[in-house]
Specification:
The protein is mainly β. The protein has two domains: 56 residues, SH3 type barrels (Roll), CATH 2.30.30.140; 32 residues, no CATH class. Helices cover 10% and strands 46% of the residues. It has one helix and seven strands; from the N terminus they run βββββββα. The strands form two sheets. It has a five-stranded antiparallel beta sheet with strand order 4-3-2-1-5, with no helix packed on it. A hairpin with a 4-residue loop joins strand 1 and strand 2. The protein is elongated and about 65 Å long.
Length: 105
């Protein structure tokens, strides 16, 4: 279900999907995905509202997605043999993520 959440970073109300929540001393903190900005943010529970009627039917501008059949690679360096090979990695390198974002722009 899509809600409306106030983003402190953007200083405005945004449509959001609630991903998770955790209790803190001052109330609940909810982890949200802003569907029109493709951003994750943390929002206090008092800053979440139910989305009214017609606004819920407007299509999202952003969606979570992944690249089909694309696996992360990294450069494996063997200092003893003085070689470097590209091989599979568990996570994407920061440089690869930045390069991909530049390509998208």
């Amino acid at each position: 279900q899509v809600y409306v959440a106030f983003s402190e970073e953007l200083k405005c109300w945004c449509r959001a999907l609630v991903k998770s929540g955790r209790q803190q001393a001052d109330g609940y903190q909810l982890r949200c995905f802003l569907v029109d900005y493709a951003k994750d943010c943390s929002v206090a529970s008092e800053n979440i509202r139910v989305l009214a009627g017609a606004f819920a039917k407007i299509p999202h501008r952003a969606r979570k997605c992944c690249l089909h059949c694309t696996k992360p690679l990294t450069l494996h360096i063997d200092y003893c043999e003085n070689t470097a090979k590209i091989g599979p990695a568990k996570r994407w390198d920061t440089a690869a993520i930045q390069h991909f974002r530049k390509l998208l722009k």
